[in-house]
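Form 7-S
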Amino acid sequence: MDWQREFELYLREHRHPLNRASHAVGIPLLTVTAIAALVTLDWRIFVVGWTVGWALQLAGHWIEGNRPAIRKRAMSALMGPVMVAVEILGVLGLRFAFAERARRAVGIG
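Output:
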């Protein structure tokens, strides 16, 4: 897999900082609430978490002015969480060379 290419595709669909922020909150929320619902066997946790998580991401794409990438490329369902993890880890100081090259290629500092 060409990680730089995947990250460039992700960044091109998520240029606006509020869109990236909505994903940085929404995607982990989807993951955490799915796990919590499985552990507790409480489907309400899943419904609430997934409603809020997807609403955040859709709001981000509304701000961005584009449709979610998952509608264009099925691979985005897997790559979205990976790319959000790369961005969160970057904020924490863990840098990935492919992500830095992708940011430069897309023009996002």
